[in-house]
Each structure stands twice: as C-alpha cells, then as structure tokens.
Amino acid sequence: MKHNFGAGPCILPQEVFKQASQAVLNFNDTGLSILEISHRAPEFIAVMDEAIALIKELLNVPVGYSVIFLQGGASLQFCMVAMNLLPEGKKAAYLETGVWAKKAIAEAKLFGEVNVVASSKDTNFNYIPKNYTIPEDSVYFHCTSNNTIYGTEIHEFPKTSVPVVCDMSSDIFSKEFNIADFDLIYAGAQKNIGPAGATVVIIKDEILGKSGRVLPSMLDYKVHIEGESMFNTPPVFSVFVSMLNLRWLKSKGGVAEIAKENVAKANVLYNEIDRNPLFKGTTAVEDRSRMSVCFVMENPDLEKAFLKFTEDRDCIGLKGHRNAGGFRASLYNALPITSVYVLVEAMQDFAEKNV
Ligand SMILES: Cc1ncc(COP(=O)(O)O)c(C=O)c1O
C-alpha cells in the first residue's frame, strides 16, 4: 500500500475507488457505465442533486446561498470572481499569501482595481499577515484559506463588513467554517472533494448581478445557478466520485469529526518536525497548515537521501513545491493517521543513521 502525501490530485478513500470502479462497469444497475450515461438521465440528475445536497448538509450552507459545480478549476475562479463581482472603476481588496493568491490578484486586475491590503511575500510567504485594514469601500475582500504550496493556513478570518471571497481549494471539508461569514467560496475538487475536473462554488445569491458587465454565459454564475449546474455537460464522472466521497465523509461523522482526525494527524507530524534535530518547519507556528505540512532539513545536503528513504517505505508525493523546496506532506481527509506514523517512523530511523 502506498502512503500518498501528494498535494492534489490526491488520495481519496479506498472504498470510493472501489465504488467508482464498479460504476465504470455498471452504474446503479442501469447496464450502462457512468462514463457513457447522459447527464440528462434521471439517474445522473439524482447524483448531481445528492452531491449538492451533501455539500449543503456537510457545510451547513444557509438559505440564500447557491451551490454549483463548474469546470475550469480554481484557476478559472480567479477571473470569474472579478468578472462577476467587480464593477469597472471599483476596488477589491486582496490578501497576498502565496502563488495562488498572486494569480488571483493578477486575474482580478484585468477587470478592476486591486488593492493588496497585506502580503507575506517579504519572507517567501511563511506566515499569514495580520492586523491589516480592509477599506470599507472595497467591493469584496479575497483571501486563500490554505496556502497549499507554502503550508500556511488562516485560522482566524478578519472581521469585516466587506463581503469575503475565499479560495478554499485545499482546506474545504477539512474543518468547520461558518459559511455565513463568506459571500463566495470556491474550491477545485481535486483535494478533499473528489477527482480533478469539477470546481465547487458556494455563492450568496444577493451579491450577484451588480457588476454592470455583460458576461459570456459560461462565465456567468447566474447562468450556472439557473441551469442547476447543467447549463452545459457537467464533468459527470468527477461529480459522481465527489458525491461518493462526500457520502464517505458523512458516514465518518461529517466535518466536525474529520477535523479532529486532521488535528491529530497534523500534531503527530509537527511534533516530530519540532523534536527531530534533522528537520525544521518552514512556517510561523501559529499559522501552520493542518493540510499542507511544509518542512526542510537542517542540512539540505541530506534532502535527496531522505526523499529516497521515504520512497523506499512507500511514502510518495513528499517533495516540496519548486517555489518552497524541502518537503510537503499533504494530510487530506482520506489520508489515514497510520500513514503519518509511517512517515514519522521514517524520520526517526533516518535520524538514527544520520545524526
Ligand atoms: C489554494 C489553491 N488555489 C488554486 C489552485 C489551482 O487550482 P486548479 O488547478 O483547480 O485551477 C490550487 C491548486 O493546487 C490551490 O491549491
């Protein structure tokens, strides 16, 4: 068995893989594969409805919000957010906490004025800026809840009367969020939701229709809300497997329960990073991510050998992003704590041989 610490696409539960593979051969006893069934078939409409209902239930989405499945990844949301929400000549506030935030900023600049209210780029994004001011006249404030590449996570969101837009691609469903604190949330599916190909967007309905911009249909949230995520052919397989994965999450006790496991997994690994003389964490302790644990070695010359050592123990996906270096262990929902124990044991055994 491989211990998949990859950043995304990433590990999903084994039972989801089994159910998905069965449905590739015969979906719901229809005699058809999930790969060939029409998205207009009642059996698939039921899948879409259940996936959306599960998102609403698991995240306690209040009345007045729509949940849709789109395509184009979180990256398309970088521009769709601004196109739909930011009128020309108006300002949006952005928090710059890493590569993904930078990309969101660059795309928004194509449609309006962007005010970067705070940034941690001075220290290669190893902390979350705090105590910044979000100007009251901002149309919205955009932030990235988990910085997948640098391993920082927002544990406390700023209190503001400005509508908050959040890229939750890499920590949605990992812990409880109060959805009512946000006006728009988006996430590429390929971490805690399901396979790549789908993007989930949760929108407070009342913020739409104010940009004064005529939008192409495919880039207009309203069109997708009215089309119930079926304005055009949705990514059928990705939505189906997301639904299976959300059912699995519900069967585990939902977000509150998985959050406890996620805290436990992160604690085990950070404790070893702090205890073991060979390793050190790269981020401010109070901003450490529970999903993306980034660390380096005190002696960088040992990093190649350690990576090989972990691979020999079937741990994969640990090489850090090229912008951050070192190592990154992604501890998404489906990664069992036993995999974290295997990694910790490898760190200890490697230290015994190399201290
Ligand atoms: C926080 C965050 N935002 C955006 C993206 C880009 O997502 P996509 O590849 O779905 O466009 C990623 C990808 O890893 C991410 O981690």
Protein traits:
14 strands, binds pyridoxal-5'-phosphate, seven-stranded mixed β-sheet, 355 residues, alpha/beta
Fold and architecture overview:
The strands form four sheets. This protein has a seven-stranded mixed sheet with strand order 2-10-9-8-5-3-4, sandwiched between helices. A three-stranded antiparallel sheet has the order 11-12-14, with helices on one face. It has a two-stranded parallel ribbon with strand order 1-13. 46% of the residues are buried. The protein has helices at 14-25, 42-59, 73-85, 99-108, 221-226, 236-251, 254-275, 303-312, 337-354, and strands at residues 3-4, 65-70, 91-96, 113-119, 141-144, 146-147, 152-153, 164-167, 184-188, 199-204, 279-281, 292-297, 315-316, 327-330. With 355 residues, the chain is of the alpha/beta class. The mean pLDDT is 97. α2 (42-59) crosses α6. It binds pyridoxal-5'-phosphate. Residues 8, 73-75, 100, 144, 148, 167, 169-170, 188 line the site of pyridoxal-5'-phosphate (PLP). Residues 8, 73-75, 100, 144, 148, 167, 169-170, 188 line the site of pyridoxal-5'-phosphate.
